[in-house]
## 1
Amino acid sequence: MHFLDFEKPIAELEGKIEELRHLTDDSEVNIQEEVQKLQAKAERLLRQTYARLTPWQKTQVARHPERPHFGDYISRLVDDFQPLAGDRSYGEDPAIQGGLARFRGFSSVWIGQEKGHDTATRVRHNFGMARPEGYRKAQRLMRLAERFQVPIFTLVDTPGAYPGVGAEERGQAEAIARSIETCLEVKVPLISVIIGEGGSGGAIALASANSVYMLEHSVYSVISPEGCASILWRSGEHTKDAAEQLKLTAQDLHKLQVIDRVIEEPLGGAQRDKAATIDAVGDVLEDELHRLRAFTGGALKRKRRDKYLEIGRVGLS
Amino acid sequence: MSWISNYVRPKIRALVTRQDIPDDLWEKCPDCGQMIFHRELEKALRVCTHCGYHLRIGPNERMRLLFDSGQFTPIELPETIQDPLKFRDRKRYSDRLREARAKAEATDAIMVAHGRMGGHPVVMACFDFSFMGGSMGIAVGEGLLAAARLACMQEAPLLVVPASGGARMQEGILSLMQMPRTTVAVDMVKEKGLPYVVLLTDPTTGGVSASFAMLGDLTLAEPGSVIGFAGQRVIEATVREQLPEGFQRAEYLRDHGMVDQVVDRRELRDRLITLFGLLTRTTPEARIVRIPEGSLKLDGPRVAGGGPRIDDGRPTAEPQPADTGEAQQQPAEKRSSWSLSLTGRSRDKASGDKTPDKPKAEKAKPETAKSDRPKDTQKGDKQADSAGETGGHAHAASADPHQAGGDDETPATDPDRRAAE
Ligand SMILES: [Zn+2]
């Protein structure tokens, strides 16, 4: 288990519990009791900590290396996943994964950034930072979904689009713009979940959807707290302030009516119970799919546009 | 209609006054460092007379330079929520806004106006880089939406001139949301079959480049403009190598297939007029043929028959030989209620050239009277509302052969019209 800096007290307690457990063979009765007491204490601490996460702490949870990623969702939520590769004009970008799958009976297209889970896969997926090919593949898959009238699910988890020379040369800006446009055009249900980090243009490129959900401890922002601090405060020391000011938590975004709903995470964050997190997301997606299926393609497109036109009338007081 | 009475309160601003600059002022070119006499610089539209560097210009100056006779009508932009996040960095956002407004040409980083270019009605939205780096927040998004709605109502092309570092961070996620919102805006224009042209100026980066700015039917750029998604320092820090020569400049983007043309500011107006003409007057100018007495039955059904052609699914930007083939069809086409700006001409023809056919001329009149003058108001609303549904080929306006009013700079392709006037 990887602990975040603010989880140190919890880590210590859990370490102690682990030690005591190894001692139980020495048959002292109160060890059992002691373990239970410590466990209750650890849980209380975990509950307290996670009920009061600051925006910066949430950012850290959202980036937790053991948080479930796109691949975890796919292997648990869908059957017959068929990954589809390439943008048909330049290349294949492993930062964005996508394909056809059966989700609770429904054929569907799944698209999302994959961050990877160890050094090799992180490098392979470029830490979830896509290049133009990735966004163009996403557009291709969205059009495929539209052609066969199957719903689209996008799982967003990216620090942002990749800032590289080649990416710029091949039209990173255009690829993102066109991806947003495609999201807004397709005449099938499009449902998005921010499962970890919703990093700026790289996120909205996949998340201009009919319904947008966020996991409880995910974040979604126009710029990373680090980037914002360095531009507006001209100092990396103000990252926490930037996280605070940007209002990037699921709870604030719900108040701003930018997202439709916050999906609860297990106690201590998604990383503590991947299966429960993924199932909770699956249930929300299934319900919403049933709701959206009642609308015609034209209505879905119109509703999606209207939804975005409405955003921005509400502020935080 | 309600939208127009609410938001489009036109304040005629003819020939906006130039700042008073003392006669002996020289300016230094930020690129080559040479001194340029300010009058020379103004005459060259603020393009360095030594090296061709394009100095930044504000929205007023840009519009004065592009619209016919420098005349245009700015529209008042919708009021939007101020400082929605109560954002504070080293300074309060509300204070930054107040300071920016005190110095600015408009209430936020965008100015929207309508006017004519070479006679074509055009709606223009220009960014003001001097207003918080031209950054895009809710107000800018609303400005682009207003511009798009106005273009749809007037059936006019939309020209957008970004000059922006990207999203306005102080509005957090709500600034990010302007990316889909402005995409909806320009798609409304495109779905109505109206040209959406982007002129990228220095700089166009971040969330602005990654939304409406890269979605133009045509994309022009001013020489030397920095255009791209990520900032150069960020890229350098990521790739840890020197960036290529000319990286993210207009010419570089053109060479990499992202921009149609890089156009010198001094040629810009003519170039845009030509392009708008090519996109809106897609068939040869109508030739007026005398129609034998009594052979013309052009009333209700004929006109109604003109409408559905629009839905026949063929790419309407193509020339339509049928239009020119039979003289009798011309008036019906021209009278179709799909182009506001067209009707002025059809009236000219109907009343001026077809005098023998009196009933027809009279018939044409009530219709044109209804839809001609108050260009902003008539059926624009209706069509704007349904724009979302038509999904693609409603190239109604562009199917019509002409949209020009009467300007001397209109290419003299239509002597008949001149005669009629
Ligand atoms: Zn110079």
## 2
Amino acid sequence: MTGPTSPISQDVLLGVEQLSKSFGNVRALRDISLWLPRGQITALVGDNGAGKSTLVRVLSGVHQPDHGRVTFAGQPVRFADPQAARLAGIETVHQNLALVDELTVWQNLFLNRELVRRLGPFAVLDRGAMQVKAREMLARLSVNVPPVRAKVQRLSGGQRQAVAIARAAGWGSKLVIMDEPTAALGVQETARVEELIAGLRAEGMTILLISHNFEQVLRLADRVWVLRSGALAGGRLTTETTGEELVGLVTGAIAG
Amino acid sequence: MTTDIQTEPERDERIGRPRVLERLVVRPEIGALIGAIVVFLFFSIVTDQFLTTGGVAVWLDDAATLGIMAVAVSLLMIGGEFDLSAGVMTASTALVTAIFAANVGLNLWVALLLSLLFALAVGLFNGVLVMRTGLPSFIITLGMFLALQGLNLGVTKAVTGTVQVSGVASAPGYESVGFFFASTFELFGTQFRVSILWWIAFTAVAALILVRTKPGNWIFAVGGAAQSARAVGVPLVGTKIALFMTTAFAGWLVGNINVLRFTTVQANQGIGLELQFIIGAVIGGCLLTGGFGSAVGAAVGALIFGMARQGIVFAGWDSDWFMLFLGVMLLAAVLVNNALRRRAERVRR
Ligand SMILES: Nc1ncnc2c1ncn2[C@@H]1O[C@H](COP(=O)(O)OP(=O)(O)OP(=O)(O)O)[C@@H](O)[C@H]1O
Ligand SMILES: [Mg+2]
């Protein structure tokens, strides 16, 4: 295989070996092996249906792989559910954003991470504190800050995306996975999210970025992996590849 | 409120701050509250007895047991599920208690405990089956409804040779158990049933859990967007199973309030009540699609039921009119709730 040579294990935050996942007859992932260098931005590209989101869902504990191994921070891991992945330090912005429309912005930001106050033997929600912190989390990345007390249902596509990103970025986790984070965003918001991603990297976070925008990938990422029909078509350092080469790998014009 | 100003430099001006009235209007229980006031005023005016303390005691009593169930069912519906076995459950739990106390001769406290275990087991079974199979709870609990109905009749006939169990009053422990479940207390010179206190307590606890605790958020999340909730680690399966068990627990409470008060249970009791519970919850603002609703609203929905059912009796009308009233009330509540929701969404889009 061409591309980045096998890394020294210490520099790898997350490693995937021979991972496979099928849904009935659909082999969504076939023997995928790749790794994410610690503290870097790694991109994952591929055509629609290539298996990117499936890989994201396996890494974030939504799906369990049929075969293969995942190692995280040097340890073999098998996330039984999304909570396990979250506790290990993996935050995900899912392609469908995984927001609850009927809940407010702040409730979504803190869903399952609620701040509570002790009231005798009871733990009651500290709504005030969550609203204040929610504003801070959003102010960091969004040009068009959605009101934290509005229901998510009423937000624009870009505002919804901002909420999902703020939620994933706000917890100081080790790995943030973003599945097409700028797909619904305008020019200003995209720039803001790209700044945020670069900022997270500067803070030492490792990022897996799924994107169809090759310019964005080349601009932001350190490495890029290409998926084609569920299999790995190749991996490149972004400094050593071009948009044309990535297109070739994605479409199969260039063999991995 | 200084923090508000500091941390909101770039708030979207177009959205604006929701005004008090609008905030009130988006509350799910608002339709039920308006309905309750209308029904209350109506029967206070057209009948003499309705507004006397004796009258109040009667319609509160009617609303109490229904209210406990409607509140439990509202939590379940907010969590995105139904329980059609909730009605017969109130008979099954009463029968279990009665048979163990009156026919087996156990102390009533022990019978009560066995009945509780039975209820929780049924709730667990409902929940596990729904979550394991992924089938709609409507179907699963319909099966449970039929099964319990058959079991109630079959076991009662086998044990007593009749279709009812009686003799609870002579079972050991009746005095002390009865104090908790079937006594009365005096207020303004009138005897009120203790079930009213159970209803208020159950509603208060349910409402607090729903809007002030973490599991409350989980209930809204699993009912509104199950997969999104799961993706952020909300214990989807556990939350839903707990909701089925809560409904079964409420069935236990109500079944035993009834059996200790009347000391007799009919094996075919409770059939059809499951729809009344759902109607109470829907009048109270619950959506059939889940993710939205209110425990207090469901309690108010049950209150409307009780007021209307007894108000019609006080007015001396034929009780057949109650069904007409119920139909109109349900449609009115749903239409009002729907209109208010639409408006609320449009206002702040
Ligand atoms: N839960 C599922 N059940 C059945 N098939 C699935 C499921 N999830 C994904 N697939 C299938 O697996 C394949 C890969 O889908 P996936 O969503 O991973 O693609 P993707 O690379 O993220 O595409 P896109 O760029 O459109 O987001 C597709 O053929 C899809 O239909
Ligand atoms: Mg995808």
